[in-house]
Each structure stands twice: as structure tokens, then as C-alpha cells.
Amino acid sequence: MRKVDEIRALFPILDRKVEGKDLVYFDNAATSQRPRSVLDLQQELCSRSNANIHRAVHTLSMEATEAYEKGRDAVRDFLGAESREEIILTSGTTASINLVAHCFAAAGFLKNGDKVLLSAAEHHSNIVPWQIACQATGAGLKVLEVEPDGTIDLQKFSDSLTDDVKMVAVAHVSNILGVVNPVKQMVAVAHSKGIPVLVDGAQGVTHLKVDVTDIDCDFYAFSGHKIYAPTGIGVLYGKKEWLEKLPPYMGGGDMVESVSFEKTVYADLPLKFEAGTANYVAAACLRPALEIAGELASDAAVATHEKELMAAMESALGSINGVKVAGIDAPERIPLYSFTIEGVHPLDAAMLIDKMGVALRSGHMCAEPIVRRLTGGSSMLRASLMPYNTVGEVEVFARALARVVIMLRQ
Ligand code: PMP
């Protein structure tokens, strides 16, 4: 069996049809599909071990707690973090970044006149939480432009780190450009000036082998649903020294050691940041999801397959007149292509191509500032692939897109 067929066999949804056609699912950057191992664990935990975690001594609760904590251990291994205390389970990337922005400001690390440095290509999740933190403190945002090829210039980055910059928040990979940012080098430069760095890894974990200890970032955030796990679970990696300096984000059950009306003692890490009943089923599913992700990331045959997919996509998009692909000339990128087609509205194209069985994303894709800079408008199309996609699907996409262009340009 070909490698890609073996991978596809793990994902039941890939067999479905849309509008009578074989599904071509190219909206993976929005959410990925789930393998059978994840679906089975979800089913098993819900039907056999459903109970609240951390709080009871009965069998079901202990099983649920064990499954939850195994999810955390899987994340620790996957990210190469030094300790499990550095792995906070949240509801997603958005929640993770909000946590850091809020607590960083609340702890007094952002003051009137300070700046948070972001790249121009950030997702709304890595812009708005910082705007809120700035509003609360009198700090402001500073935006680092990206180069015409979508890359970040390290010299310009270094020059932008003036004394007033107190935090750098940058995507590992932009969800519009698909370009891999040099986060390790950026962290080294920022640290040489005493500035911490948060990496938004929502699109980074899906195609790159991530090692937070090697990158040396202070915070790294990602979402389970973009890497084969269910929705409603996400991760915040934080260096212990930072997590200890930050106050809790939310108060409630599970994040406390003892409570009285006079005084509350918070739980130790990581529970200090995990108030309330967790989505333990989804958290547990991080284990099988990251197992598959880890296997795929270290398989040379998968790397070759991804290169073939990218070559096929680049030639398919290049063959259509009037197509402009963001970040296409960058030296290091993932199989994620945001594009416009002259004379064709992205929404019309996405609706029409869906009738041909092809799922694409359209709109501003929650990164309106960079979409506006690139297009002057507020909308693009995006095709994003995972290792379970095939060159055959790229060919179907290319034929469908060519038809769509002819139909909509008439
Ligand atoms: N950052 C980036 C780069 C993303 O692509 C996304 C998801 N589109 C997010 C943050 C937000 O992720 P979530 O909605 O899962 O919190």
C-alpha cells in the first residue's frame, strides 16, 4: 500500500462524498480531520468513564483523570517541554493567548507607554487579546511589516526591539502566508534584549517538528483540532519561571489548594491556570492525535509526499491565469496557499467549487490586516493540505478551479 493510502485509511471521513463527488478536503488549516483512534477514544471515554476529573476517588473519576493527565504527558513529549507543569490545557490557541495577554498585563509587565511587538501577518487571536491588554494598561501595539515574499527580516526585527517593547507575539506560521517564521532566531534576538516571546503555533505544529526547549520561547500556543484532536482543547506551553510569575487567569474549582472567605491559596502549576471542569475527553484525545502527528512528522516518506503535494499545488495554481498566491516565493513554507483570482470573487468561487466536492476556505480568514494589505480587499481563497491529501486530489482541485474561473469570469 502507498504511504498516503495507509494514512488515509486512518481517517474515516475521507471516504465521504459531497454533492455526489469524492470529498477533497482542503480546509485543514481551519480544522483537521480526526483519525479512528481519536474517534474511538472519544466514544470509549464518553460511554465508559464519564466523570468529573481530579475531584473524586471513585473508579470512573480516576479513569477520567488518568486519561486527562495522559493527554498532558503526550503534549509534554510532543513539544519537548522540560516538565508537565509547563503544559496548561486550555480550550484552544485563542484561550491560551488571551490567558498570557491578560495575566502579563495584570502582573504589571505591561505599563503605560510600553509596546507589544506583533508581525503584520498575525491571526486575530494574536492581535485582539493584546489590544485588550493594551487598553487596560495604556500600552500599545507595534507592528513589524513582513517582506514582499512574506518573510520576516531578522535585522528589521532586531531594530524594532526598542526599549519600550516588553513582549513579542508572533506566529510560527501565518495562516495566510504559510511562511515559516525564524522563531528560534527571533527568540535569541529578543532574549538578548531581555524581551519574552510568545509563539502562536496554531499552524506550526501541524507541519513542523516543534521543540520548545530548542526554540527557547517563553510561551507556545496551539489548538488540538488543527492537529487531529477534537475541538475545545488547546495548549499553552509556558516556561515555569514565567507561569510562576503570572497570576491566575480565571478563579474557580480545581485551581485552588484551599479557599476561605478571607484567603485563597492557589493550586500549584499546572492546575493554577485550569479553573473549572475541563474538557477531559478532548484533552485525553490529544494522546492518540499527537501520536499520529509525531509519527507523521518523523517519517521521511511523509516528508517526500508533502514535497510532492506542494509541487503539485504550486504548478496547479501557477497554471491558472490571474491567480496570485501569497508568500509563494518564501524559501520555507507549509502546504497552505491563500490566493486571489483576477475577476473572480473568492466567496463565489468557494461556493461553486464546493459543488464539485472541493472544500476551500474563503473570506478574511481571521487575519484581516494582512489580507487587506495583500489584496486591498477583505477576502481571499485558501487551500491547506495535510499528509492525508493526495496528488490526485490536487489534480481534481486544479480541474475544478479552472472550471470555476471560466464560469465566473463569463
Ligand atoms: N492562530 C492561528 C495562526 C490560526 O490559524 C488560528 C486558527 N485559525 C488561531 C490562532 C486560532 O485558533 P483557535 O480558533 O483554535 O483558537
Structure in a nutshell:
This protein folds into two domains: 138 residues, Alpha-Beta Complex (Aspartate Aminotransferase, domain 1), CATH 3.90.1150.10; 255 residues, 3-Layer(aba) Sandwich (Aspartate Aminotransferase, domain 2), CATH 3.40.640.10. Helix content is 40%, strand content 16%.
Question: What do you see in this structure?
Answer:
By secondary structure, the chain is α/β, with parallel strands linked by helices. The chain has helices at 3-8, 36-48, 59-79, 93-106, 128-137, 154-160, 183-192, 212-215, 240-245, 280-297, 300-318, 346-354, 368-375, 391-409, and strands at residues 17-18, 21-22, 24-25, 87-90, 115-119, 140-144, 165-171, 197-200, 219-223, 234-238, 256-259, 264-266, 323-325, 336-341, 358-359, 361-363, 380-384. It has two domains: 4-30 and 299-409, Aspartate Aminotransferase, domain 1; 39-293, 3-Layer(aba) Sandwich (Aspartate Aminotransferase, domain 2). The protein is built from 14 helices and 17 strands. The strands form five sheets. The chain has a seven-stranded mixed beta sheet with strand order 4-10-9-8-7-5-6, with helices on both faces. The protein has a four-stranded antiparallel beta sheet with strand order 13-14-17-16, covered by helices on one side. The radius of gyration is 22 Å and the shape is globular. It starts with a helix and ends with a helix. The mean pLDDT is 97. The site of 4'-deoxy-4'-aminopyridoxal-5'-phosphate has 15 residues, from helix 4.
